[in-house]
Automatic annotation (TrEMBL):
Name of the featured protein: Carbonic anhydrase
Cofactor annotation remark: Binds 1 zinc ion per subunit.
Family assignment from sequence similarity: Belongs to the beta-class carbonic anhydrase family.
EC number: 4.2.1.1
Organism the protein comes from: Corchorus olitorius
GO molecular function annotation: carbonate dehydratase activity; zinc ion binding
């Protein structure tokens, strides 16, 4: 009885596959053919251990493909030809702070650079070239109209900046190969907060530093000649933003 049922299922799948073969997505077609082969016994069933992380990626793409990509063919045909984003966004690598989700950007609307604590270093052709290349491409090649530096609450990079000891200290409880050197970009912001708000509780100082670091990065953007020229002639607006995921608020300002 079981063998007979399997044969019926196989024959049914074959008929379905043959009847709609032209319209099937290649990936779906491959899965159906593999299933038929396994039911027929010509291919042994896969005994690979279940990988939930791989499944998460596959299901995530399937959702995007079925609900976004396939439903907007004309839009994605245009994107395949070229991108014309109006925004360059610098955001933190923090997994809780995706600007595409928080600010509801569609694909093609924002050119995004993400790093620890959403920092932008000063212009330097020999250091931090990965950040410089993002800015240069966005400004010179894509012609973005806005550059947004987006900070956020409970930023681990800003917390590390606040923890950095004075140069006079010889002992550090914890060191990092890359992070400590990177967050030093924000030292001018830390100095300002310490000078103006050292009397406040540490948590309040951290919130202030998260915003002041955005201001510091906005000022650093002006050290890039092509950014300064674009700002001066009015073709680019520099914007600061702060996302607080404690209360679900977003504030923004212009330089």
């Amino acid at each position: 009885m079981a063998n007979h049922s399997a044969e019926v299922v196989v024959e049914g799948l074959k008929k379905i596959l043959i009847s709609v073969k032209e319209g099937l997505d290649e990936k779906v077609q491959g899965k159906v053919e593999k299933l038929i082969a396994e039911l027929q016994g010509t291919v042994p069933p896969s005994h690979e251990p279940f990988d939930p992380d791989a499944q998460k990626l596959e299901l995530g793409f399937d959702f995007f493909k079925n609900n976004i990509f396939d439903k907007n063919p004309e839009y994605f045909r245009e994107l395949a030809e070229a991108q014309h984003p109006k925004f360059l966004v610098f955001a933190c690598s923090d997994s809780r702070v995706s600007p595409s989700i928080v600010l509801n950007f569609k694909l093609g609307e924002a050119f995004i650079g993400r790093n620890i604590a959403n920092m932008v270093p000063q212009f330097d052709q020999w250091r931090h070239t990965e950040i410089g290349s993002v800015i240069e491409y966005a400004v010179k090649e894509l012609g973005v109209e806005n550059i947004l530096v987006m900070g956020h609450s409970h930023c681990g990079g800003i917390a590390r900046l606040m923890e950095l000891p004075d140069h006079s200290c010889s002992h550090m409880s914890q060191t990092y190969d890359f992070i400590d050197e990177w967050v030093k970009i924000g030292l001018p912001a830390k100095q300002k907060v310490k000078e103006e708000a050292n009397h406040l509780p540490e948590e309040e100082q951290l919130r202030l530093l998260e915003k002041e670091s955005v201001e510091n990065s906005m000022a650093n953007l002006l050290t890039y000649p092509f950014v300064r020229n674009a700002v001066e002639n009015g073709s680019i607006t520099l914007r600061g933003g702060y996302y607080n995921f404690d209360n679900g608020t977003f504030e923004q300002w212009k330089m």
